Amino acid sequence: MDARILFVAPFTDLVEAAAEVVKEQFADSAAHIKIVKGDLQECIAMVKQEVEDGVEVIISRGGTATLIEKNVNIPIVPIQVTVIDILRAMMKNGKYPEKVGIAGFENVIYGCEDLAKLLGITFCEITLRDEAEAAEKIENAIKNGVELIVGDAISTKIATNLGIPGALIHSGREAIYKAMKEAELIARIRREEQEKSELLRTVIDQSAEGIIATDPDAKITIFNPMAEKMFKLSHLEVMGHSLKKVIPELLISKKNVEDDVQKIGDKTLTVKESRIKVKDETIGNIYTFQNVSQLQQLEQNVRKKLHAKGLIARVKMEDIVGTSPVCTAMKRKATKYALTQSTILITGESGTGKEMLVQSIHNVSTRSNGPFVAVNCAALPENLLESELFGYAEGAFTGAKRGGRQGLFELAHGGTIFLDEIGEMPMSLQSRLLRVLQEKAVMHLGGDSVIPVDVRIIAATNQNLAKMVEEKQFRQDLYYRLNILRIHMPTLRERADDIPLLAKKIVKQMHIVNSQITGISIEAREYLKKCAWPGNIRQLANTIERVMLLSDGPMITKQDIIEARDEEEQEIEIKEEQRNENSAKDNLAEIERNTLRRVLEEENFNYGRAAVRLGIHRTTLWRKLNAK
């Protein structure tokens, strides 16, 4: 289980003390607490990675805690230094001078005045804000008569270098215990708040009503998927903009309106407006919209039936992993295109996840309540592909189903049809597809009636269709019909920064393969970024699955991946060697046939004389010349 609390100890003694406290007081939750050693700048990169991996609260001390707080945006719990801790450090050698310097960051040196009065000595507080000023301030304190420096690790080290004793303040176990209890409380509260937030987000996103929220300045803060469909706008375009400018036709009331009916664009909507208040202070408004048309209820019933048939798209835009610039730009373009009705052509290498993008486009679109039908044009022979796409009439061919059969275009009515590997579609079917695009209607194979269909077509290919048009392998008019809106799927070479995120998600998805694997190390994720992935995401997933089957866990290491990739390289080399051998055999066979043809021509195509000259039977000569 991932750690939720990270304990960063600036020195070894604190690591040991923290481990003892966890063992004695937090045995039930030890799996959630991770203890590491790190001081000041040296630990920042490690801390950032831990935060990325899911740490929710950090515990540390002194300057290290202060520096971490400046570099991450999650709660930091500093270990408070008590008067007892300071006294314990001073008494370590039995004696202490009359003038003692207490050096450290603000969270180390507070509360020393009472101790000074009790002991009858003078404390000189040396407040440090960063490591750079420590040496100068401590040196000035020594010039003013300070004979002992009590403080954190950096302060005592500088004191020793300047020739006076330095006493390191060790945090007592009671202080560590208090810090861990506070961190546990914060982590639990944060988890509860995240769960509430996720629940609210899910409710808003899954709502059958359009929901828009605004801040006190009437700027949009929430624009849910149903609102996107109603107003044909992406939340990426409207967030932070004035509601009045985004939807100028909306009549905004100055008081709560339970149900108002308004004509907005080509839709008649019910509008409900509510104030969002916190302790009688209005902090914004929330608007809910519903389509008055009875088609909404009908579409919901249709969706239930389609769900039973499996004609649904399961992938959503947020399921597509990636934060790299090219991936973000691709998702933003896809979201915009989804809200149109135009045909989309998706290009990209094999294994880049084209079908996932198509499904997410369908789910963002205004057709998401309709069916999603996918067909691979390269997977079916021409005659079967034709009957699958367009359907057939009764008696159209031998074995045709009684009463005929609907085609995929009819099943996709009101929704989306995805034509994968469109470049593999035979030319004869390309003309029929063009007719569907032009006339919005299909005709059954062997039928004589035209059936209107309302279908949005999304096509995908890993081939260069423009080049295929030049080579007369793809219809030019169909190409222009398909290539209205175009999205290029980036390869893993183009989005290498996304590989660690993809790897982490794949490991979680494949947990059932090896339940002992709990994660993938940072070093392994970084190594994956450096590897070549000609097969893109599909190859990456296959490699990780192989690693999970071979690894003993609990973490996938860089060495695990190297060994798995070595196996893959060996397989590739064997296949390449086999191809080379076959190629060599083919070349020898071609040389032999050329020789036989030449001798046959010289003998004026007399097989008998040519066979005698070659020293073989004439049947053997004929067979070799006609071999494929």
What do you see in this structure?
The protein is an alpha/beta fold and 628 residues long. Helix content is 47%, strand content 18%. The chain contains 26 helices and 22 strands. Helix 14 crosses helix 15. About 1% of the residues have low confidence.
Key traits:
five-stranded parallel sheet, Rossmann fold, Beta-Lactamase, alpha/beta, 6 domains, five-stranded antiparallel sheet, 628 residues, 26 helices, flat
Give a short synopsis of this structure.
The chain is α/β, with parallel strands linked by helices and 628 residues long. It is built from 26 helices and 22 strands.
Strand order of the main beta sheet, please?
A: 10-9-13-12-11
Q: Which of globular, elongated, flat, extended, rod-shaped describes the shape?
A: flat
What structural class do the secondary elements suggest?
A: alpha/beta
Average pLDDT rating: 83
Based on CA atoms alone, the radius of gyration comes out at: 36 Å
| Strand composition percent | 15-25%
Question: What ranges have pLDDT less than 50 throughout 5 or more consecutive residues?
Answer: 570-578
CATH topology of the largest domain: Rossmann fold
Q: How far apart are the first and last residues' alpha carbons, in Å?
A: 60 Å
Our count of helices gives 26
